[in-house]
Here is the input.
Amino acid sequence: MVDIDAVRDWLGRLPGGSLVGQYVDDWDAFEKLDRPVVTLFGSYDTGKSSLLRRLLVDSGGNVPGWLTISARHETFEVNDVEVGGCIIRDTPGFAVGASDIRAQNNSRRAMAAVGLTDVGIAVLTPQLATAERDLLQKLFTQGWPVGTMWFVISRFDEAGVDPEYDLAEYRELSDRKVRELQELFELDGRTPVFVVSQDPFQTAGPDTDLSRETWDDFRGWDGMRDLADAFEAVSPSALPGWRHTAGQRYWTAVLDETVTELRRQLSDYSARAEVAASGVARRDGWESELDTLDRAAQASLDGLLEEVMRRSWEPSSGADELQAEIQRTLDEWFTKHDVRLQRLQQSIRKTKERERARPSWAGFASLVATLGSGKNAPTTPAGPGGAAEHVETVGTMLIGMLKVANNAPGPIAGGKASSAKAAGDLGRHIGIAEAALPLAVYLAKVVDEQGADRARLNQDKAAAEKRQQVVAECTQRTRDTWQPFVDDVREAIVAETRDQVDLDASLRQLVEQLQEAVAEGEGLFRAGTVPLLETEA
Here is the structure.
């Protein structure tokens, strides 16, 4: 038996917020009911609504407007009616494996209602459970006191034998189906099983304005008397024991569903954290490579212009020849090192293209979009009680936690805009020729100004110092011209990895918190044992 107080405490400390209030409200509302709650559940079109209609009419009650009878999926909410001393709940039908949201929500609502009930009635067709077998099996082993889990094989007039022509064969088929059901779910003789034909030959059809006399001709074999007697035998005196067991069943299901959802969130966010961490590593790697390229370019520049100036100071050098030599030297330098920058840029682009093609990127991009949009993750509409309804809010809580941690939509939304701009530019402020030409013109002009005095200046100390100043200034001008090329690549690196770097720390923290929450939840399971079907009240 799980420690309910420990489960509540754990729910109150989940990453991003608390779920305990929602669960406590649902449980308190159920616990205050002073009459036994009986819940009909099963796949849609098993006859739950027509069975409830028959019980209501036979007991002299009115059929509520929400109760519709159809072969289609017509019940979408959990609704209550009173029959005798019981509250009977009609639930939407299970839709196992359904992909549409409405069917999934219906299944959740049905499961939630079963979590808050004293007596559960599984309604099956004569074909018995097929696709929903595993789902029903899970429900049956959630700790029901003996006699509080019933089975109804309904619509048995459609089983293939007409009782009005061969009643003995009809009853033999009925007994055989009961045995098949007991074998299917490994039931013993203490589990009530009823075989009924609640609306033989669709006598009433979809009508709801009916009287008891509608089915008088079939009461000798339709099985409804036994089921009605079982309802009358449900005693409020057993409620304390049933509610205690229901509490264990409910909070165990809450724990199970929440841990399952946290595991799913942990898997998702672990994948997103890996994407973010890879972005941090790539930024560090790319920036290190860029710094290495920049240092190499700067080092190769030292002494290069001084050698050109030394040669150009010779009196025999003409101005045109000098400018051509300077232009050629600078062109070679710019071209050599710009090619290396372009290779790095190309590597960045290809790496990002490969990363965005991976399945893990889609989840990370979706998270970034959600954080930047100012909206929370979509949630399932709330329904009556049960873990399956509330765990949907876990994702919303985690999104809110990340928004607080990253002050979204600031960094994330801004990062997307900057990234889009930088990805489009990826850098060339000016071309190679345009970069080198002004420097060549400047150097040629300086040298030309010396004119006929070059020979003297080569031997004059003051002139030599002047030449060094010119070299230093021209070298700095070259570096200033080169810097935008480097800056463009650095901006591209930052922009391409901005979202990953911005989210890295908060995602790592969130994954750690989810790991701790899952481990603690699993520990609550190990600390107790879940009661089985044969548990006594």
